[in-house]
Amino acid sequence: MKNKARYIGCCVHLPANFIHSLVDNSRDISYRTLTRHVGRDQLQETFPNYAWDRGDRDLKLADDWAVRFQKARVKDKTYYFVVHSGIEYIWRV
Hints:
There is one protein chain. By secondary structure, the protein is an alpha+beta fold. The chain has one domain. It is built from three helices and five strands. Strands 1-5-4-3-2 form a five-stranded antiparallel sheet. A hairpin with a 2-residue loop joins strand 3 and strand 4. The longest helix has 9 residues, at 16-24. It starts with 5 loop residues before the first strand and ends with a strand. 15% of the residues are buried.
């Protein structure tokens, strides 16, 4: 199944008022929910330094305690995003 989510960028390159609305309207979601809507390959492309192979013993994005997965609705559009090192990486559905 092809995901319809499209990466729109990180908070550093997007308007501050959009990021404030996004964060204010967000809620936590699971890694599984995120991958269902964004897709593992898009996450792997955005975060290549994590371990992505099943048997790999290195840190996986899903297991990083310092990363949050979130969903928000802003102006009738749905966004999924990963908060990594205080930076929001955002996909629009």
